[in-house]
Write a structure and sequence with these properties.
The chain has 473 residues and is mainly beta. It is 3% helix and 45% strand. It has helices at 3-10, 393-400, and strands spanning 18-22, 32-39, 49-56, 63-71, 77-80, 90-97, 106-108, 112-114, 123-130, 159-161, 172-180, 190-200, 207-208, 214-218, 224-228, 233-236, 242-249, 255-263, 273-274, 287-289, 294-297, 308-314, 320-323, 327-328, 332-335, 343-351, 355-372, 379-387, 405-410, 416-418, 424-428, 434-435, 438-447, 455-460, 463-464, 469-472. Strands 20, 22, 23, 26, 27, 28, 30, 32, 33 and 36 form a 10-stranded mixed beta sheet that branches. The chain is elongated.
Length: 473
């Protein structure tokens, strides 16, 4: 499933649930009309009925004639004339009759003109997307098909805060301001965290980062400290236990966003388990969902000492990236790998003048197959797909020994209801349903009303890896 393609194709469709693209100018010289028909995940659709109509205006009266019918071949392609030859000059349009399991829509292209005197081989090329809908006015919105909105880490981190109403003349915050922290602060910790977002400069009308803004931090005892915004903010946690309030202020002192961060009692136990006794300075998850943060943990609370970075290497093609942390405490650090290829990777934790610790981590891609959805009042199916698991049975069993789960959440049950499952449930990834490196789980649904729907899926686990290699830098 090419879910990323579906995002690009489906963007900005408005009230329509299908799209066609004219690749040649409407007045292009041509003698054939061809194209392809896809579903909203980018898969080709074969045996789809396609019709070509010619528009004439005898005596000034518009007349539609022709209705020549054909079907897409096994590659999803069609061509007119169907038996070879050329089309006569004139104005035409194409109609595609989508299959019932793709919404049953009838799609019509814009009209285009084929001129006389054309050169052999030129053609008008069209692309049609048959996308399932919930009701005639619904737009199919598949949140988290390619990746999950990064609002979750296993034991804290990444808190989003919605800005308050905008005072007159204040800059506009574009989207939410994000406060990214590790969620495990304790008294006396030296930590770093990220505050990020975009604002609009009212005078220039351009989006800008938060340069010139400040972050005000109030500890549980009421003591306040104000620091200039920077990409990574450093802070020493006070001795008080409770909740810290962090606020983002613009240069005029207006609060744009605010969140609270817990300060846990000293010695709070770590919220994870390991199969083997911890070695080195950190442990890490064996899985990383693409689009999700990656959080490592230090059993001996040593991560805040010195600079730290994460090197992520794809073992299949050798591609690698270096990730700087977006949040660090003595107990854990959060990174955000950007690569989008699922499968086996090597994650190396590097610190200046310290040990390098290497982990084997499988990156998983979560997708949502929606081609079996139906219209309002009818039952259908969505399929959650998770790819990137090892093909080797021994490796797969070892990976599953960490007891991963997949949490599925339906945020819009009033639009698309789960008929056999609750709106939020977890599935144990214990080997059942995993074939060829991909896990699939069908969810029976019923379309309640027309509208957008949102389904999220994320992988979780609480048993972490110890490093397989420890080497001196």
């Amino acid at each position: 499933m090419n879910s990323k393609r579906s995002h690009v194709i489906g963007a900005g469709l408005g009230a329509a649930a299908a799209l066609f693209v004219l690749f040649a100018a409407q007045t292009a010289r041509a003698q054939t009309v061809s194209g392809e028909v896809l579903d909203c995940t980018g898969r080709v659709l074969r045996d789809v009925t396609v019709e070509l109509y010619k528009v004439t205006t005898p005596g000034g009266t518009r007349t539609v004639s022709g209705g020549v019918s054909g079907q897409t071949d096994k590659g999803g392609y069609f061509r007119f004339p169907t038996s070879g030859g050329t089309l006569t000059p004139g104005t035409y349009y194409v109609v595609v009759k989508c299959p019932r399991n793709q919404g049953g829509l009838v799609l019509q292209s814009n009209e285009f003109y084929l001129s006389a005197g054309f050169t052999t081989g030129n053609t008008i090329s069209l692309k049609f997307i048959c996308c399932p809908t919930i009701g005639s006015n619904a737009v199919l919105r598949r949140t988290d098909v390619d990746n999950v909105v990064p609002e979750f880490t296993p034991f804290g981190g990444l808190v989003e805060s919605v800005p308050p109403p905008r005072p007159p003349g204040a800059p506009v915050v574009v989207g939410n301001v994000e406060f990214v922290h590790t969620g495990d602060w304790q008294p006396g910790d030296q930590v770093s965290f990220t505050v990020r977002g975009k604002v609009v400069d009212d005078k220039a009308g351009r989006q800008a980062d938060l340069t010139g803004h400040v972050v005000k931090i109030e500890d549980p005892s009421g003591k306040q400290r104000t620091v200039a915004w920077s990409p990574l903010i450093r802070y020493t946690v006070s001795a008080a236990v409770g909740r810290i309030t962090a606020s983002l202020l613009n240069p005029n002192g207006t609060v744009l966003s605010r969140t609270t961060i817990p300060v846990n009692p000293a010695g709070t136990p770590a919220p994870y388990q390991t199969v083997e006794p911890p070695t080195g300075t950190c442990v890490a998850p064996a899985l990383n969902q693409i689009g999700q943060p990656f959080q490592i943990y230090s059993p001996n609370n040593q991560l805040a000492q010195g600079d730290i970075e994460l090197v992520v290497r794809n073992e299949a093609n050798g591609a690698s990236e270096v990730c700087k942390p977006v949040a660090v405490s003595p107990h854990s650090a959060i990174f955000e790998p950007k690569g989008e290829t699922p499968g086996r990777h090597t994650f190396t934790v590097r610190r200046t003048g310290a040990l390098q610790e290497v982990f084997t981590v499988y990156r998983l891609l979560v997708g949502l197959d929606t081609k079996r959805l139906q219209n309002v009042g009818k039952k259908g199916t969505v399929t959650v797909e998770v790819s990137g698991f090892p093909l080797d049975e021994v490796e797969l069993r070892k990976l599953l020994s960490f007891k991963p789960t997949l949490r599925i959440t339906n945020n819009t049950p009033d639009v698309l209801a789960f008929t056999k499952d609750p709106s939020e449930f977890s599935v144990k990834l214990d080997g059942g349903g995993i074939e060829g490196g991909t896990f699939r789980r069908d969810i029976l649904t019923k379309a309640i009303r027309a509208g957008d729907f949102e389904i999220k899926a994320r992988t979780e686990l609480i048993i972490l890896l110890t490093p397989r290699i420890i080497k001196q830098e």
